[in-house]
Amino acid sequence: xxxxxxxxxxxxxxxxxxxxxxxxxxxxxxxxxxxxxxxxxxxxxxxxxxxxxxxxxxxxxxxxxxxxxxxxxxxxxxxxxxxxxxxxxxxxxxxxxxxxxxxxxxxxxxxxxxxxxxxxxxxxxxxxxxxxxxxxxxxxxxxxxxxxxxxxxxxxxxxxxxxxxxxxxxxxxxxxxxxxxxxxxxxxxxxxxxxxxxxxxxxxxxxxxxxxxxxxxxxxxxxxxxxxxxxxxxxxxxxxxxxxxxxxxxxxxxxxxxxxxxxxxxxxxxxxxxxxxxxxxxxxxxxxxxxxxxxxxxxxxxxxxxxxxxxxxxxxxxxxxxxxxxxxxxxxxxxxxxxxxxxxxxxxxxxxxxxxxxxxxxxxxxxxxxxxxxxxxxxxxxxxxxxxxxxxxxxxxxxxxxxxxxxxxxxxxxxxxxxxxxxxxxxxxxxxxxxxxxxxxxxxxxxxxxxxxxxxxxxxxxxxxxxxxxxxxxxxxxxxxxxxxxxxxxxxxxxxxxxxxxxxxxxxxxxxxxxxxxxxxxxxxxxxxxxxxxxxxxxxxxxxxxxxxxxxxxxxxxxxxxxxxxxxxxxxxxxxxxxxxxxxxxxxxxxxxxxxxxxxxxxxxxxxxxxxxxxxxxxxxxxxxxxxxxxxxxxxxxxxxxxxxxxxxxxxxxxxxxxxxxxxxxxxxxxxxxxxxxxxxxxxxxxxxxxxxxxxxxxxxxxxxxxxxxxxxxxxxxxxxxxxxxxxxxxxxxxxxxxxxxxxxxxxxxxxxxxxxxxxxxxxxxxxxxxxxxxxxxxxxxxxxxxxxxxxxxxxxxxxxxxxxxxxxxxxxxxxxxxxxxxxxxxxxxxxxxxxxxxxxxxxxxxxxxxxxxxxxxxxxxxxxxxxxxxxxxxxxxxxxxxxxxxxxxxxxxxxxxxxxxxxxxxxxxxxxxxxxxxxxxxxxxxxxxxxxxxxxxxxxxxxxxxxxxxxxxxxxxxx
Length: 960
Description:
The structure is a single chain. The chain contains 46 helices and two strands. The protein is mostly helical.
């Protein structure tokens, strides 16, 4: 790429457009950048752009992020993108270091992205393919007195050394030794040198001159953490006193520059992380310093109100001490009491920042509070400290905290308007200290009697008619209900559901989010035995008020894309018996929401639950009452067509899955609108977007099931086979190709497919010659098994041998027999076992005397398959979709749980493949008495002979 001024101007304009809220210009710019990324010199052009001070900061930051992502995808060779050339990579490496060392050339955000970029490059090239990097950093570190430049060097070192925190292999240890040999001593030198400068600076020193010194020490501490993470290096062990002396000084010294307090606190937090690392990994070496540091950290927490990050790291260090062999440091009542009352409770009590987040940033508040992502908040880590101490002093801690909770409730009762934070703190402590099991679905507490606390404290808040008074407490009550839902009796929960529905109408985002989450979680509660506690009949009386309340909650400011509300809608529509009268209004409401989010898809989790809700409604309503299909089509078709024509790529995978559902619930013959889509589906161009291929396969299989006779027309069957060939030539899609072919075999008669069988086998065997991966071979065995049970063993053998004489026996010995035992999934296990049994009992080709050895090996493999424990062969299917972080902003395939098609058993008449095997063998042996026991004795290993004998005994069969 020619890095001219015009090129840089074009790139600058494109990056501005990528920040546009308007989807049109944004997609156009993204498309240009995606194409430009293939051009030589593109990465260097990005570096030129992001390093130019005259370019606006938003453009420089956007180009820096793009540059980092470009390195991530193209620095090393991959199947998806051409790699950056070697010459260009060398230039990039030299420029990266130079830009990082010149701290004045760019903003902190750009510096941060450059640092991550260097880390990405270092992960691949350092040190073996970048030997000049470490000497260059060390030389610059020793020669410079300019602290912004020194911090650039340390930032670069911090980035490349972070890899030592992730994995521990021989190669990583070799690289670590190289870094320790070259950097450990210079690191300590600069750390001590900077400490002296800080100590010599007086109150008159300008804060802006001192601030870089503290930032330098923080970076040194982060590098210390990386270099010490895998093992305690000899150099650091020898110089532990110097490091620990400085660490303690930073925790105990009061500095005279208030304006740089945040930087000092960041340094102290880094120190506490280092102490935690030594406490966790090198306790024996650290023990001489432990008592002093525990005291220093304790005093730091008690004497001040440190910011969140420092409080979290400091409390985490104390937590590690509390769970170690040195827990006796906390054994005294004089220590236990102050820790509970002076550290835990103050850090759990809601602060002004928490209230602001509750009011103005409900997404982050809920994410921390309910979803468990608050592990790094002071509230949560304070409770972790309490749990740590309680591990050895449970009775003492229980007595202290229970008394604290009762005192808080008493204070609240005395003056609710003023002391509502006491109630909030009490509920938070009970919830945070709950014992959870079963993935958090079941919780209990030994601090309080859960049901009694619920009825005494929580229920009045849920039933309060003035719901807008202190909404934080309504949220707390709902959270308690969510966490302890399994402990609340069914009749109590049902009686409170109308109150929870009423709270959906509160404008406060956290409250109606929690109300929606509470309803959604209650519908998943299971009793012993795994049965759902609540039934559709239980929620039926609530539907006329519940569904409108959920839709109305989406109209509140900032809740138009509230994922908790949409998840509840999805759950209710997938759970309840939604009548025709309600179904029509539901699909209309969902379509309106979908039409709106199509304009600018922003929240991928919300969007996923939205499509899940549509799929659930189709599944529950259309499949039960075909009369509503036309109503759904009238609402959905316009917006689904808009998604395709307006190229809303994020929604294409979902759209094709919804279309598959509509095809399946539609009575044949399919109308012209569906057949037009079928024609588009068979076009080669349609299959060029990898992210939509799984959804296209889902849709194509729906057409094959619903309208197999249509394949006779206009060369459609050949085009389906061409799609199959396209998919099996890639390891990423080969299983999808076999899904199509399996569906074809299941739904087409032999009269339609016989003329194509040779072509199909040829395509498979051509791929098999160069690709014998286990996944491909397993898919082939399943396909051959389905072919056999559908058309018979003779047709299978003859059609394969028509490609090449006697090739079937080679396929059998090289692939089917050795891999049969690895088949998993109940349906596949049953299918392949029965097909293999029919092959040895019904196929003339296998019953020939010359095939005795192969026959015996095949039976040995069948017995191995059938004898495997159930847990080894059955793949569990999740009952509910687990969305969360798996959904990203890119156009990727995410399966819609509610749009899934339950695979039908092609062998419904056979209940037990074990019984089928021994009965088939018994029948076979009657025609040739004495022949098969001898083959079994010679061919099956002893363990499998015993397993077969046990099966014969269990089913009262004899092989004669």
